[in-house]
Each structure stands twice: as structure tokens, then as C-alpha cells.
Amino acid sequence: MIDLSILPLYLTAVIALLLLPGPDMLLIASSSINYGKRVGIFASLGNATSGIILTLLAALGVSALIAMSPTALLVLNILGGAYLMKLGWGCIRAQAEQAPSMNSGSTMAKSFYQRALLSNLLNPKALVFFVMFLPQFVSTAIDASSGEQMLALGLLLNVLGLLFNLLLVALVGLLGKPLLESPRFRMYQHKVMGVVFFGLAVWVLSSIDISHLL
After folding, report:
1. In sequence order, what are the residues at sequence separation of 6 or more whose Cβ sits closer than 8 angstroms to the Cβ of residue 177?
2. Cα 36 versus chain centre, distance
3. Cα–Cα distance between 15 and 148 in angstroms, integer?
4. CA 8 → CA 51, 74, 137, distances in Å?
């Protein structure tokens, strides 16, 4: 369901996008450094899950309708930013003794799966990206419908993105292992993630444009 003649161009564009630093990369790398590879892997899976959902929405045309509604995008911006700020505030308020131990990885991993999933779904930039990016590679030279092609292109993008993120987790996890074994670092790891979440909130809220609503 993909025009093989445009596949090299598509793969080149995807690789370039994956290498471009963004909020997803920041969240996954930070969670890996602060809480270990297991948490980073689950954050990567959460990100991939949101990507599949957005791909399905784009293929069905639902996300295109949402992207064309300034009010809907504004609401998503506010909800996404508020959610990330809530996570950041919760992390910063956490006491030192609340820092997770090396044995609490399962709970922390599930938590970051949910956080990565929701932060991406509530990010209008991710929604608009799927609406604007995937149709550029829909071809009229094959029999598959535009929806089928967008679904195939989106799934390929998510598979490559997951593989890239898992590689990132492996590399960052090795660098972060000495930090995880440091009691002093573990005292402040929640604070570090709080700053990361606040930074992501600013990233999302910075795209708000209410001029067209006035």
C-alpha cells in the first residue's frame, strides 16, 4: 500500500525527522537517564502507541477535521500544556525520600508509558504533523486509497520511530547508569523531570495563537 517509487524519499524524510531534536526525544532521553532503561522503553512504547492512534485518526480523516478547527486546536493546546505543567509541579513537589528506588521500576515504567502517551496525544503539533506530513507521500500511481496509503506510511513511521527511540534509550541508559547508582542524584531526579515537564509544557503552549479567535 505504499508506492515503492517514493519510498526512498519518504525514508529520507523520516530519518531526518527522527534525528531532529524534539519534545518526544527529550522526554524519552530524560526518563532513561533519570529512571533507567526500563522506564525509557515504556516511554518509547507510550510514544509509539500515541503515534499509531494519530495515524489511524489521520487515515480516517478525523484529525484533518480537528486540525481545521482553530477552537479545537486551542483546547488541545491548553489541555496538553496544563497536563504537562501538572506533571512538572508534581515532580518538583516530591520529597527526596519519594524518589523511586531501583526496585520500583515497574510502577515508574507504567507511569511514564501513560505520560508519554497522553502528552503526545494532547500535543496539537503532533496532530497537525500527521495531517500535513503523511498526505505528501500519497500516490495516485497505485490502486490503494489515500486512507490506506496514509495508514501504511504512518505505521512505517511509527515502527522506525520506535526502533530509533529504543536505540536512544540503550545509548542514554548506559550513560545514565552511574547516575542511577548515585544516592545524591536520586535525591534530585524528580526535580530534574519536573523541569523537563515544565519545558515540554512551554513547548506546547508556545504554539497557541488566539489572534484568529479575537
Report:
1. 36
2. 18
3. 22
4. 21, 36, 11
**How far is the C-alpha of 16 from the C-alpha of 139, rounded, in Å?**
21
Separation of alpha carbons 74 and 200, rounded Å: 16
| CB distance 88 to 198 below 8 Å | yes
Alpha carbon distance 26, 197 (integer Å): 10
CA distance 64 to 161: 22
- Express each pLDDT in 95-115 by its tens digit: 544 444 444 456 788 888 988
Q: In 30-58, which positions are buried (b, 16+ CB within 10 angstroms) versus exposed (e)?
A: bbbbbbbbbbbbbbbbbbbbbbbbbbbbb
pLDDT digits (tens, 9 = 90+) for 162-181: 999 999 898 887 776 666 55
37 contacts 173 by C-beta, under 8 angstroms: yes
Q: Which amino acid appears at position 58 of this protein?
A: A
pTM for the model: 0.73
